[in-house]
């Protein structure tokens, strides 16, 4: 879903307002170090483990910020969220906290862990297609028929403000940071983190990392506008949007320094490294920044923070990906 051109950019005050809204509700995730990772990369590396966030991923930050700041009368009608998985769980949890009903539209290929997570949190799950566009179309159809409100997964200033609190925390906790690596899906997290980081510390280098098979931000930057790419099925299911959002893209153009791509084999290695060396369980999408470092696709020149976006994978999924030795 592409929004109108030249949208207003989220201001630092909006990120700070989101942080205040989330205080005492969201987890302020720590920055963690590993001697092994430092040695392999050659510079100090912190990871920002958003799998420790409520709902198992960064998405709770944006979902709760959005619901907290919209009109209560609109919120009370219930909400609907198109999502590959993590946004669905975040909206389900935020809706539960506000005491309102939630419906989530997930792909037919959704992992068992992500579907079960949304259902445990009380959401009604509807399956539709395999692409972002198909999920959004179904969400719009249901919203029109039932009067519920759509909580966009990434293409909205409130969502970007909420996700960008990750960036605020990084600079507050590690002001000497030289480089920040952030995953790129539809663009809400990457836009929010890049913008918040650059507004606080303009000299920090921000690099987006996306799956090699779904290079929607790379293609958009080459074209100067969001473009739709062919649907791709890969391990990083949370990063397979077929088009970067228009609102996030405006932020990317101003604040992201570079975009790099990582293939599936590197994701497996990164997941195993995080599990073996740092005792962190990451889903493939969540491990993509570490994959970029381990593969040498990016070589930072100073202290680095790698955002780990989520960990919504369960035993069966881990076994199928990592259990072959």
Concise account of the structure shown:
The protein has 325 residues and is an alpha/beta fold. The protein is 45% helix and 14% strand. It has 15 helices and 10 strands.
Task: Give a written overview of the molecule.
The chain has helices spanning about 10-20, 35-40, 60-70, 70-75, 85-100, 110-120, 130-145, 155-165, 165-175, 190-200, 215-225, 245-255, 265-280, 290-295, 315-320, and strands at about 30-35, 45-50, 80, 100-105, 125, 150, 180-185, 205-210, 260, 305-310. The N and C termini lie far apart (about 40 Å). Mean pLDDT is about 90; it is low at about 1-5. It folds into two domains: about 10-55 and about 155-320, Rossmann fold, CATH 3.40.50; about 60-150, Rossmann fold, CATH 3.40.50. The protein is built from 15 helices and ten strands. The strands form two sheets. A six-stranded mixed beta sheet has the order 1-2-10-7-8-9, with helices on both faces. A four-stranded parallel beta sheet has the order 5-4-3-6, sandwiched between helices. About 45% of the residues lie in helices and about 15% in strands. The chain is of the alpha/beta class. The longest helix is centred in the middle third of the chain and has 15 residues, at about 130-145. Strand 3, helix 5 and strand 4 (about 100-105) form a beta-alpha-beta unit.
């Amino acid at each position: 879903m592409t929004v109108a051109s030249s949208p207003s950019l989220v201001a630092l005050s909006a990120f700070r307002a989101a942080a205040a809204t989330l205080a005492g509700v969201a987890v302020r995730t720590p920055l963690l170090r590993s001697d092994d990772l430092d040695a392999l990369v050659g510079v100090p590396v912190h990871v920002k483990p958003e799998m420790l966030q409520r709902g198992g991923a960064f998405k709770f930050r944006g979902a709760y910020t959005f619901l907290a700041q919209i009109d209560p009368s609109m919120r009370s009608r219930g909400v609907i969220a198109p999502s590959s998985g993590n946004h669905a769980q975040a909206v389900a949890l935020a809706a539960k906290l506000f005491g309102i009903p939630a419906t989530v539209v997930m792909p037919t290929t959704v992992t068992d862990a992500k579907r079960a997570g949304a259902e445990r949190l009380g959401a009604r799950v509807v399956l539709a297609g395999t692409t972002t566009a198909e999920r959004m179309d179904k969400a719009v159809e249901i919203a029109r028929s039932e009067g519920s409100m759509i909580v966009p997964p990434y293409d909205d200033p409130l969502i970007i403000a909420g996700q960008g609190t990750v960036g605020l925390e990084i600079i507050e906790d590690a002001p000497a940071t030289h480089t920040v690596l952030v995953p790129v899906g539809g663009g809400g997290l990457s836009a929010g983190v890049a913008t918040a980081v650059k507004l606080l510390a303009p000299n920090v280098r921000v690099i987006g990392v996306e799956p090699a098979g779904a290079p929607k931000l790379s293609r958009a930057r080459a074209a100067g506008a969001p473009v739709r790419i062919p649907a791709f099925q890969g391990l990083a299911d949370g990063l397979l949007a077929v088009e970067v959002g228009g609102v996030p893209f405006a932020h990317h153009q101003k604040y992201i320094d570079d975009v790099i791509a990582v293939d599936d084999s590197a994701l497996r290695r990164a997941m195993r490294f995080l599990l073996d060396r740092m005792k962190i369980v990451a889903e493939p999408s969540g491990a993509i920044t570490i994959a970029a470092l381990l593969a040498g696709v990016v070589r930072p020149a100073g202290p680095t923070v790698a955002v780990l976006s989520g960990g919504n994978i369960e035993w069966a999924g881990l076994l199928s990906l990592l259990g072959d030795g």
